[in-house]
Amino acid sequence: MKIVGGGLAGLAAAAKLGAAGFSVEVHEARPFLGGRAASFPLNPADPDSERIDNCQHVLIRCCTALMDFYRRCGVADKIDFHDRLFLVRPGGAIDTIRRDPLPAPMHLARSFVSMRALDWRDKLSLASCLGAAKRDRLRDDIDTLSFSEWLREKRATPRSVKRFWRPFIVSALNEEPERASAGAALQVFAEGLLGSSSSYEMGVPAVPLGELYSSALERGLGSSVRVQLKSKVKVIEPASPEADFYICAVPFHQVSKLLPNLGLDETLLQFEHSPITGIHLWFDKPITDLPHAMLLDRELQWLFHKGHGYYLAVVSASRNLSDEPADRIARLALAELREFFPKARTAAVEKSRVIKEIRATYSIRPGLDRLRPGSGTRYPNVFLAGDWTKTGWPATMEGAVRSGYQAAEAVIAAAH
Ligand SMILES: Cc1cc2nc3c(=O)[nH]c(=O)nc-3n(C[C@H](O)[C@H](O)[C@H](O)COP(=O)(O)OP(=O)(O)OC[C@H]3O[C@@H](n4cnc5c(N)ncnc54)[C@H](O)[C@@H]3O)c2cc1C
User: Fold this and answer.
1) Average pLDDT of the chain, as a whole number
2) Looking at ligand 1, which residue's alpha carbon is closest to its atom 49?
């Protein structure tokens, strides 16, 4: 059994198949595991230098498959869950979203009512849209609409869009409301914010992402799984005696090269990428006591305190940054942080690292969901995995793990 791709999809498939007694070989082209959710040494010439993540990755409590994978790997306790979300505006005003001891969906009602970033009209509009979200998610036409079309239909106020709907949806789907499918957006709100009273809690890895997978290698994947790093597979030949089953767990734009006769070329052409920029900044002194912050009204979207020293990871999904050089992005980030956090005005950046991922995720456009393929292919012994396959989830670590589990289950079924 051969798996091509050592990202979360491939690793999740390996964990499940290893546990089911299959002898599994994982081939990963790069010298480390984790794919897009990986870490590497800050100084590429010194493998022992500080490790940083490709970009800060977070999950929410309702990512049940991902947490199952972390448990299998013995690293579930390395995820810190935060039950308070801090929304910060330029000038430094903070709104806190936290749970009340009320059943869902009322558990966050008081936080929304108290938000100072919104006025009463915005809050009435927010309540009415949230009320419609669960119901409209099941509408037949929901995936043909963009999220902004849905918000217009519901008469969402411009400020509620700017300060609530947009920041949450860009964080969850990595796409702007004008471009994102309303179906995918409503799924996130229905499951993430309204699902249960804890589902909105945000999980932040307490260690670099790479440490989660080294532990997976040592403890989680089991002795029947062998991982070969720096092992780029050129092509998968389904009839070759090299393996009885194959799982192709690579991003959508790399599938056709590996499986040229799969018959999915037209479908794959419908997929587009959406970027994310990760900005790592090391300050000479603290600029905020917050563990994290959702940043409103500017290009930056999130800030995470990385704990050691005064190291902050800042994230932006803005397409405006895609063509900007790294030094300009670092300067823009500093200028914006100085607007949000007055203490940053007297702090200096000692070093910075900007990582632009132009192919961060696929863009979850209206109508795309019905084109996402399942794990089966025209070859009875070849299966697909990856965050872009049909999982019911957007391009996330949760989606990737679900896809890996689905492909593994398909292999198990085909082998019996
Ligand atoms: C900057 C950024 C921030 C993100 N933030 C979040 C977040 O906060 N929360 C969240 O849930 N998700 C986030 N995501 C999305 C998440 O990282 C992905 O959805 C998920 O990691 C995809 O996993 P995957 O296994 O499907 O694909 P990948 O991680 O892309 O794994 C595919 C692997 O296949 C390997 N490969 C490709 N071709 C070959 C070949 N021919 N031979 C061998 N190996 C090959 C690649 O090297 C890669 O390791 C973010 C992504 C990015 C880029």
Assistant:
1) 94
2) 35
Q: Is the CB of 6 under 6 A from ligand 1?
A: yes
Are β-strands 382-384 and 246-248 bridged in parallel, bridged antiparallel, or unpaired? parallel
Q: Is the dihedral of CA 184, 185, 186, 190 positive or negative?
A: positive
- According to CATH, the topology of domain 273-362 is Polyamine Oxidase; Chain A, domain 2 (3.90.660)
pLDDT score of 309:
66
Q: Is 205 in the pocket of ligand 1 (CB under 6 A)?
A: no
Q: Where are the domains of the chain?
A: 2-42+62-78+206-271+365-415, 103-193, 273-362
What DSSP character marks residue 88? Answer: E
- How far is ligand 1, taken at its centre, from the CA of residue 35, in Å? 4
Same CATH topology for 2-42+62-78+206-271+365-415 and 273-362? no
Query: Residue 9: CB within 6 Å of ligand 1?
Result: yes
| Nearest-atom index, ligand 1, CA of 30 | 47
Cα–Cα nearest to 400, from 81, 50, 49, 34: 34
Question: Residue 223 — pLDDT band, cuts 50, 70, 90?
Answer: confident
- Choosing from 250, 302, 319, 372 the residue with most ligand 1 atoms within 8 A of its CB, the one to mutate for a pocket test is 250
> Is the per-residue pLDDT at 218 higher than 70?
no
Rg (CA), the chain: 22
* For ligand 1, mutation pick of 36, 63, 314 (most atoms within 8 Å of CB): 36
Annotation: CATH topology of 2-42+62-78+206-271+365-415:
FAD/NAD(P)-binding domain (3.50.50)
Ligand 1 centre from 354 Cα, in Å? 18
Whole-number Å distance between alpha carbons of 183 and 216 = 34
For residues 12 and 400, is the Cβ–Cβ distance under 8 A? Answer: yes
pLDDT interval class at 100 (50, 70, 90)? very high
pLDDT per residue as tens digits for the range 335-374: 999 999 999 999 999 999 999 999 999 999 999 999 999 9
Over the stretch 402-411, which tens digit does the pLDDT of each residue have? 999 999 999 9
